[in-house]
Specification:
The protein is α/β, with parallel strands linked by helices and 289 residues long. 39% of the residues lie in helices and 21% in strands.
Length: 289
């Protein structure tokens, strides 16, 4: 009889032990995740990561800054589970993703951002035309300053102008913050940065950067368009871009859990607090009579 009791006790302890091990297995609410993002949308990515970790305390998310093209390659080579993207992938890139990751290409869109053109606050310039941008990006004067080669900002402007980045002429100051802080040294030049670098309304660093520069509206077909929420929401601002997540995670673990969270109302409220246009929810105004 005693042997029987010991056998039952052993089985119970084994089941409990296995259950505890299963409880520690990766899940959407438990585990570690590294997210690759271009510097231009690092702020909104970190804000969403912080929100997710508050909601799920057993998760640890690390946001690493990496140029957009390099982040995409790391995703293909299984060096990361999720990357933030903005550029439209070519047919070859989509094919490479589907073949190497073995998943259908389904970008998870979560925010409308923009590439903006900035000048020092004391500049007499008040706007810029599409024609000026097109001509300037082919000029040896290199009057446009970007945050680096392979950056999301350069990629997006090149796509908008229907050019390859290697065919464009431009200057470089590494890092969007450095572009803004050092722009007054080059009064004849125009900085090109991501809106999210400046858009955070409650961030002291962003506030200091906004005091240094002004964002130029872009003129096209005789009309001026600004990179404000209305311009982003209606996609009228010519350099509006949509941010999206790509993952190589085929099941519903932490990467897909984070993506789902970012696209829900709570995640979209975080996007809005970052000064960007939420992709999945829109402000609704109700008039009471």
């Amino acid at each position: 009889m005693n042997n029987f009791k010991y056998t039952i006790l052993f089985l119970v302890l084994t089941v409990v032990s296995c259950s505890k091990k299963e409880d520690k297995s990766p899940s959407y609410h438990r585990g570690n995740l590294t997210i690759l993002t271009d510097e231009s949308f690092k702020s909104v990515t970190e804000a969403l990561a912080d929100g997710y970790m508050i909601t799920y305390p057993d998760t640890k998310i690390k946001v690493i800054t990496k140029k957009e093209d390099l982040g995409f390659l790391d995703l293909l080579n299984d060096k990361a589970r999720i990357a933030v993207m903005s550029k439209d992938l070519s047919a070859e890139e989509v094919k490479a993703y589907e073949e190497q990751v073995d998943l259908k290409f389904l970008p998870a869109k979560f925010a409308a951002d923009a590439v903006v053109f900035v000048v020092p606050k004391n500049s007499s310039r008040t706007s810029i035309t599409m024609e000026e941008i097109s001509r300037g990006m082919l000029s040896e004067d290199k009057n446009f300053i970007f945050d680096g080669a392979n950056s999301s900002n350069l990629n997006f402007v090149a796509q908008k102008l229907k050019k390859l980045p290697k065919d464009l002429k431009y200057s470089i100051i590494p890092g969007s913050t450095n572009v803004i802080e050092e722009l007054n040294k080059y009064p004849s030049k125009i900085g090109v940065v991501g809106l999210n670098t400046l858009s955070r309304p409650y961030d002291k660093n962003a506030e200091k950067l906004r005091e240094l520069v002004k964002i130029l509206p872009v003129e096209t077909n005789g009309k001026l368009y600004s990179a404000n929420l209305e311009g982003l929401r209606e996609m009228k601002y010519p350099f509006t871009r949509v941010l999206y997540f790509l993952t190589n995670e085929g099941n519903f673990n932490i990467a897909n859990g984070f993506i789902r969270y970012s696209c829900t109302q709570l995640g979209q409220m975080i996007v809005e607090k970052e000064g960007l246009q939420p992709y999945n929810i829109y402000r609704r105004e109700v008039q009471m009579r």
